[in-house]
Amino acid sequence: MSAVGVAQALGRRERQEDAADVLMDASGRPRLLVLADGMGGAAAGDLAARLIVHSVRDVFQSEVGVEPGPRLRQACDAANAAIAEAVAQEPSRAGMGGTLVALAPTSAGAVMFLSVGDSLLLRWRGGKLERVNADHSIGGALDSAVRKGLMAAEEAALAAGRNRITSALTGAPLDQMRIDETVGPIRRRSGDCWILASDGLDTLSLTEIATVLARSSGAQSSADALIAAIEAKNQPHQDNTTVLVWQEA
């Protein structure tokens, strides 16, 4: 058995520019979890997020029974093409785009993922939390420099422009973008909890996220508790936040 929970908060933004979806199989197990964080503001970031999520879902719905590895890249291509088409139809949308993080189980007890941008893919296993995907943002690059001993953590934390993303689906050729994807399947274990989230979750540190997960029971309660913890911070510039939680029994 497995369960999926989803929770969302507007934050201090005027509209919701995150989108997420889950595609289930006939037995009620997830075949796909997908999340996008739109960008572009007046240039239709909310539309971009919906286009990305719907495009990815459509690829998976049309090819039942096919292992997810090739489909993830195909879905990424389809989502990027949908953005390009939307901009071509309405030039005022130039600049719209979005992040993508997608997670798909295999039939052999593993998962595969693909991500573009700074949306998060986390795994909670045995009381330990880790980020699985790369962070395509200035902050991600700075934090990587800290881990390599090239920069002090304090300097990285205070650097300007940390939230600026360095890769996104914008309709531009994908060979110009950074794409993070599994080289091979990642084995699942009983009790694993997988979290997909937009970068609004970055209001919480990994330690704070782990504390919330340790105190929660079940996918939906975990998703709700993460959103509650963010709202409790009462940040004046809080971004949209969307959290998808998949809990394996």
Main traits of this protein?
alpha+beta; 6 helices; globular
Write the layout of secondary structure elements.
Blueprint: E1 2-9, E2 18-24, E3 30-39, H1 45-62, H2 68-89, E4 97-98, E5 100-105, E6 110-116, E7 120-125, E8 128-131, H3 138-147, H4 153-158, E9 180-181, E10 186-187, E11 193-197, H5 206-215, H6 219-233, E12 241-248
Antiparallel strand pairs: 1-12, 2-3, 3-4, 3-5, 5-6, 6-9, 6-10, 7-8, 7-11, 11-12
Helix pairs in contact: 1-2, 5-6
Give a description of the structure.
The chain has a single domain (2-248), classed as PPM-type phosphatase domain (Phosphatase 2c, domain 1). The protein is 33% helix and 27% strand. It is built from six helices and twelve strands. The chain has helices spanning 45-62, 68-89, 138-147, 153-158, 206-215, 219-233; strands at 2-9, 18-24, 30-39, 97-98, 100-105, 110-116, 120-125, 128-131, 180-181, 186-187, 193-197, 241-248. Strands 2, 3, 4, 5, 6, 9 and 10 form a seven-stranded antiparallel sheet that branches. Residues 3-248 form the PPM-type phosphatase domain. It holds the Pfam family PP2C_2. InterPro entries: PPM-type-like_dom_sf, PPM-type_phosphatase-like_dom.
Which band does the percent of strand residues land in? 25-35%
CATH superfamily: PPM-type phosphatase domain
Number of domains: 1
Low-confidence stretches: none
Q: Under the CATH scheme, which architecture would be assigned?
A: 4-Layer Sandwich
**Mean pLDDT score, rounded?**
91
Name of the CATH class: Alpha Beta
How many helix segments?
6
Based on CA atoms alone, the radius of gyration comes out at 17 Å
Query: Any idea of the CATH topology?
Result: Phosphatase 2c, domain 1
Cα shape: globular
Task: Give helix and strand order, one letter per element, not per position.
Answer: EEEHHEEEEEHHEEEHHE
Structural class: alpha+beta
Percent of residues in helices comes to: 25-40%
Alpha-carbon distance between the two ends: 5 Å
Would you count the extended β strands for me?
12
Largest sheet: 7 strands, antiparallel
